[in-house]
């Protein structure tokens, strides 16, 4: 038996992928999996039978990062001693070939390709797979690159009490025999290896016939009541999305069955064809707020958009990864905005995802949206705010620049021509250009091949654009003009391409550039407008304009032009008027971050009190009560604020956890209350919330416990709980007890070598945000050279730059 250890598999290069694609064509995979060993143990076994054609006499290799026990090519046994770095050499190929590889994988606990997880509340075992970008090779032999699509047929043996789910419907399920059943699935259409899936476990199931589709929802048993609570809303969003995309793209989703599986211990979601896998954090443990519901709808529609853009039509190589993700992000918001109650989702995006893109674009971690990707490892370094969020914003700008009619016509032509195939960016841009009657070559180069954020200015009746490197990007934007009461006087569309453009604007109290937020740029209006907006942004008549006005203040703080208290002040003034639950939580989060991390230490307590005051005022509005109370509980200081938070804690465990954490931060830790709340909380991972409360204490032993769980034992679930624990760890005002951990963090982060993107992310979230300039300098120094994993290096470069900016703001 050969051990092709997953510790150091080779990273496929673009050149190797192109050579292999020119050598072979894959017809189908017939993959037999034995999951019965996962009920009590760690091992999954596979037999992968690959049928493919090749140039007679040619050679190539197949990927398999697992323990290979046998391999035959056209009936002849292969020498397992030739296997190296997860590659099995294949020589003297025939015109038609059959390769059979038997393998097993026992690393089912690190989430690299597969995760076996045990629900702590009831002991049930669940298994999920997720293969982007090249992790299918960890479970079975395959040609693991996106442009070698093939039909997949799965046969799976699993414990008899388990439900097994894959991309297509099960053709048959055997009767139980010796404690196991065999599931045989229908053939898939031609798919890239990274979007196939097998998930298994004793799931609870919801099935419904909606809009001509057979929809399925699955979750672990301990979340059955929460799934039942939210089932109709999730099904409604799913039905809307399938109808919306099918109509707008002029191509209905071509498979009747569409499943969504909510799995434990997963961050985010994955767009597996016909069987999307979501983190089960989206099955909210307590009744979801509007902010929660907006986030979940966006994720559902993002992954669904990939059925067309990514799965049906797939990029040839990872240099177009940005397009895959950016399009799904754009489409999700576009589709969400058509759902009643979600109309202002673009405002929410302006305050969250787009803000993050602007921030990243100002750091040394920025890069062109499109770039050279010599290997898969390098591609993964670009899973960031530029790829997803700036890319999304640039597609929104293209939508505005050529108009929706041409935009949709281009997409329809693109899907019709390339369904089940692979493409490059030029294929899409040519389709857009043909539909719009425009040559988009210069547009593509300017927007996608150059990093940085333009500045759009209004002065002396002219709109002008400047960029740091002289790149001329065309911008289509709107200028809104307002009277002294905030009433809209006019909206003036402007396109700036080669130089300043004269605009005829009405006399107004203020002019807001990019008021509809359709382009990606920093904006500077005339001085009178900026002064008025600083005091009156809350009077603006629509949520997107209010979000743009506040985001511009955050951008000014990020650039070092204003301080954290200025952002808190602007947010507070907006929240005197804002009652839209799609954005109030985002406003409060922005203010809280400005108060804690961008404010001089002597003023942090005062600024957090202002945030709590704004939250307390919002809590009187039923539509905003839950979100506001959660923020209030985390920052309450006065007896009145604490009393209101206590009232909310009786109704909502999320409020209760935040309040206990706030008290622990100030030295008022109540172990009995924590234990009681952990028992009351329906979340199977409530232990993480309890750990967060203990972590917030200003004690060395509290910080050490969190450090061990996150950085040493790596027991923290691979979910957003990592963000909450990091915030509880690095509390302002606890610098003395935290001092040793800054260097320990740098030592641990720079030593990261394995564990996948999710594991990287969990550990990198513990960055020492409250430390001083010397730590940021040390972090930057650690990134010199190429010793770090590319994703880790890019992340630390970004975090260190933001840290430097925060230190400067705190010193004002």
From TrEMBL:
GO molecular-function terms, A-Z: aminopeptidase activity
Peptidase M1 membrane alanine aminopeptidase domain span: 235-447
Keyword Zinc appears in the UniProt entry: yes
Enzyme Commission code: 3.4.11.2
Superkingdom, taxonomy of origin: Bacteria
Residues covered by the Aminopeptidase N-like N-terminal domain: 123-195
Cofactor dependence: Zn(2+)
Any single Pfam family the record assigns to this protein: Peptidase_M1_N
Alphabetic keyword roster: Aminopeptidase, Hydrolase, Metal-binding, Metalloprotease, Protease, Zinc
InterPro entries: Aminopeptidase_N-like_N (IPR045357), Aminopeptidase_N-like_N_sf (IPR042097), ERAP1-like_C_dom (IPR024571), Pept_M1_aminopeptidase (IPR012778), Peptidase_M1 (IPR001930), Peptidase_M1_aminopeptidases (IPR050344), Peptidase_M1_dom (IPR014782), Peptidase_M4/M1_CTD_sf (IPR027268)
CDD domains named among the record's database cross-references: M1_APN (cd09602)
Sequence ranges assigned to domain ERAP1-like C-terminal in this UniProt record: 512-781
Catalytic activity: Release of an N-terminal amino acid, Xaa-|-Yaa- from a peptide, amide or arylamide. Xaa is preferably Ala, but may be most amino acids including Pro (slow action). When a terminal hydrophobic residue is followed by a prolyl residue, the two may be released as an intact Xaa-Pro dipeptide
Similarity section: Belongs to the peptidase M1 family.
Name of the molecule in the record: Aminopeptidase N
Source organism per UniProt: Nocardioides luteus
Phylogenetic lineage: Bacteria, Bacillati, Actinomycetota, Actinomycetes, Propionibacteriales
């Amino acid at each position: 038996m050969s051990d092709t250890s997953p510790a150091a598999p080779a990273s496929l290069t673009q050149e190797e992928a192109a050579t292999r694609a020119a050598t072979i064509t894959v017809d189908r995979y017939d993959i037999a999996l034995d999951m019965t060993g996962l009920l009590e143990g760690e091992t999954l076994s596979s037999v992968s039978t690959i049928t493919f054609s090749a140039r007679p006499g040619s050679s190539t290799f197949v990927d398999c990062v697992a323990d290979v026990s046998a391999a035959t090519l056209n009936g002849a046994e292969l020498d397992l001693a030739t296997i190296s770095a997860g590659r099995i050499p294949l020589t003297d190929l025939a015109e038609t070939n059959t390769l059979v590889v038997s393998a097993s994988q026992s690393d089912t606990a690190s989430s690299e390709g597969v995760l076996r997880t045990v629900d702590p509340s009831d002991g049930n075992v669940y298994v999920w797979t997720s293969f982007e970008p090249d992790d299918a090779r960890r479970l079975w032999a395959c040609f693991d690159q996106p442009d070698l699509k093939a039909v997949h047929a799965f046969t799976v043996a699993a414990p008899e009490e388990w439900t097994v789910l894959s991309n297509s419907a099960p053709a048959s399920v055997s009767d139980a025999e010796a404690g196991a059943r065999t599931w045989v699935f229908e053939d898939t259409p031609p798919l890239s290896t990274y979007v196939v899936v097998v998930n298994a476990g004793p799931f609870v199931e919801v099935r419904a016939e909606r809009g001509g589709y057979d929809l399925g929802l699955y979750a672990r048993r301990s979340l059955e009541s929460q799934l039942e609570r939210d089932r109709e809303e999730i099904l409604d969003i799913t039905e809307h999305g399938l109808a919306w995309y099918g109509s707008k793209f002029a191509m209905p989703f071509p498979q009747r069955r569409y499943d969504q599986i909510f799995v434990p211990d997963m961050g985010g979601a994955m767009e597996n064809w016909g069987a999307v896998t979501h983190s089960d954090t989206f099955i909210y443990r307590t009744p979801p707020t509007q902010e929660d519901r907006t986030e979940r709808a966006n994720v559902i529609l993002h992954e669904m958009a990939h059925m067309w853009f990514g799965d049906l039509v797939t990029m040839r190589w990872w240099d177009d990864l940005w397009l895959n993700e950016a399009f799904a992000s754009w489409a999700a918001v576009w589709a969400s905005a058509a759902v009643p109650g979600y109309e202002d989702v673009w405002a929410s995006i302006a305050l969250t995802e787009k803000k993050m893109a602007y921030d990243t674009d100002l750091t040394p971690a920025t890069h062109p949206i499109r770039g050279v990707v010599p290997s898969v490892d390098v591609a993964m370094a670009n899973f960031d705010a530029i790829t997803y969020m700036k890319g999304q914003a640039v597609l929104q700008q293209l939508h505005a620049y050529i108009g929706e009619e041409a935009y949709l016509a281009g997409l329809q032509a693109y899907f019709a021509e390339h369904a089940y195939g692979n493409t490059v960016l030029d294929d899409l841009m040519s389709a857009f250009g043909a539909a719009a009657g425009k040559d988009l070559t210069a547009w593509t180069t300017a927007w996608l091949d150059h990093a940085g954020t333009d500045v759009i200015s209004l002065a002396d009746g002219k709109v002008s654009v400047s960029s740091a490197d002289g790149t001329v990007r065309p911008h289509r934007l709107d200028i809104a003009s307002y009277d002294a009461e905030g009433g809209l006087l006019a909206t003036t569309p402007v396109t700036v391409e080669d130089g300043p453009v004269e605009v005829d604007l009405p006399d107004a109290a203020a002019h807001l550039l990019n008021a509809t937020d359709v382009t990606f740029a920093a904006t500077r209006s005339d001085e009178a407008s900026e002064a008025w907006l600083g005091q009156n942004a809350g009077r603006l008549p629509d949520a997107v304009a209010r979000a743009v006005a506040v985001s511009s203040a955050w951008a000014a703080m990020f650039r070092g032009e204003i301080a954290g208290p200025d952002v808190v002040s602007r947010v507070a003034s907006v929240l005197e008027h804002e009652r839209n639950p799609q954005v109030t939580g985002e406003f409060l989060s922005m203010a809280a971050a400005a108060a804690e991390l961008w404010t001089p230490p002597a003023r942090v307590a005062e600024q957090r009190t202002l945030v709590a005051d704004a939250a307390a005022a919002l809590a009187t509005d039923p539509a905003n009560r839950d979100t506001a109370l959660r923020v209030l509980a985390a920052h309450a200081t006065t007896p009145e604020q604490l009393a209101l938070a206590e009232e909310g804690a009786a109704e909502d465990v999320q409020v209760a956890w935040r309040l206990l954490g706030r008290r622990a931060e100030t030295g008022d830790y109540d172990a009995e209350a924590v234990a009681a709340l952990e028992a009351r909380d329906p979340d199977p991972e409530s232990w993480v919330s309890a750990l967060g409360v203990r972590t917030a204490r200003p004690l060395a032993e509290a910080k050490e416990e969190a450090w061990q769980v996150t950085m040493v034992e790596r027991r923290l679930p691979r979910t957003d709980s990592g963000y909450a624990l990091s915030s509880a760890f690095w509390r302002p005002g606890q610098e003395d007890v935290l001092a040793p951990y800054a260097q320990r963090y740098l030592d641990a982060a720079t030593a990261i070598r394995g564990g996948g993107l999710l594991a990287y992310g969990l550990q990198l979230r513990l960055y020492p945000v409250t430390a001083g300039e010397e730590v940021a300098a040390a972090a930057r120094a650690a990134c010199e050279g190429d010793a770090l994993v590319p994703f880790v290096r890019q992340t630390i470069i970004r975090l260190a730059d933001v840290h430097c900016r925060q230190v400067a703001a705190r010193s004002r």
